[in-house]
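User: hey, got a sec? need Efflux transporter, RND family, MFP subunit folded
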Amino acid sequence: MLRKGFAALIFFLIPVMVVAGCGRKPPEAADTQESVPVKVDRVTARDLAEYRIFPGTVEAAGQVTVTAKMSGRVEAVLVKAGEKVKAGQVLVRLEQQDVKSQVDQAKAGYEAALANYNKINSQLEQEVQRLESALKQAEENYKNTAQNYERMSGLYQDGAISKREFEGIELQYKIAKEQYESARVQLEMTKEKAVPGTVAAAKAQVEQAKAALSAAQSALESTLITAPIDGVVGAVDVKVGQLITPGIPVATLGNTGSMVVKINVSEDVINSVKTGQKVEVAIEAAGVNLEGTVTSVSPYKDARTGTYPVEVNISGAGETVKPGMFARVKLAVATYPKVLAVPEECVLTKGEDKIIYLVEGGKAKAVKVVTGPTVDGFTVIREGLEEGLEIVVEGQEYLDDGAPVEVVGKEEGK
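Assistant: Yep! Here you go:
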């Protein structure tokens, strides 16, 4: 029985010893975890800017397209591409013979209407003078007759003259009075109605003829298509003998000494674009990279493109830059001044947390951070870091919290 009990005890202890032996580290293996080589850098505040590139087209400053104002056939092209012109200089002349005939006819009609107006004025003036003279004469006759009538009326009442004689005097008085009233009414009607109406009608004919003459003269002027500004001719789009209509482009003008790039900016960033803002402009065809200045930002959206027109000045671009060339404008659409930011690869995601590793006492320390936008390879750190702390910038993907590290280098100026 004793031997059987000992055997059972041995059977029980063997598994326990095996298990205990598996969990014990060999003395030489303890505390031999290898350090992870890393590079570090100090957290600093920096200015960041988010950029976007917009395609655009180079134009001469103040570039305009000159168009025809009337229909006609081109009689002469007086300038060539590349030629400097002054404002008002004739670029293209249309045929003028028919238009000159219209001017002559309109001028004759105006002169005739003006002569008729002057004639009517003169005749009406003479008629008024005649009526005034007649009224004056009738008034004198009426006064004399009235005085005689009053005197004879007294004599008649005294029986000094017969009734027949008195009736003759009375008839003369009545006739004189009627003649006076008639002359007065005729003069008043002539002055108040006849003269103004007749003069107004004649004047209206003059104004109508004058408008026709002005229209004809304007048409004659429109046969001369002139430069609206000082500049250089970029292109001449018509030929001698060509029939053109209003609105047809004739030539392009601009100031090639001062170039601009026109771009279209989307609504999500238009409020960040300001006049005076400096931008980078790349023009591959000319092989140049220039600094430009935003000179205008339209407050209105272009209905055709759904974007906002923006103009960038690139004065001093040089002769290699030509109107019509393709350009790329690098525009800062968001700025983050004096923010704590780290290289974006330093920020690791573990579960729902954002982690950055510090180095403290030769070991890695995981720190949870709150991040902002990533701009130009740097991630803004809103919470969790302070300026001056050393963070791991290389080797962080091999670390765990508390792992031993060996600093093998520091980033310079990153």
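Quick note: The mean pLDDT is 86. Let me know if you need anything else on Efflux transporter, RND family, MFP subunit.
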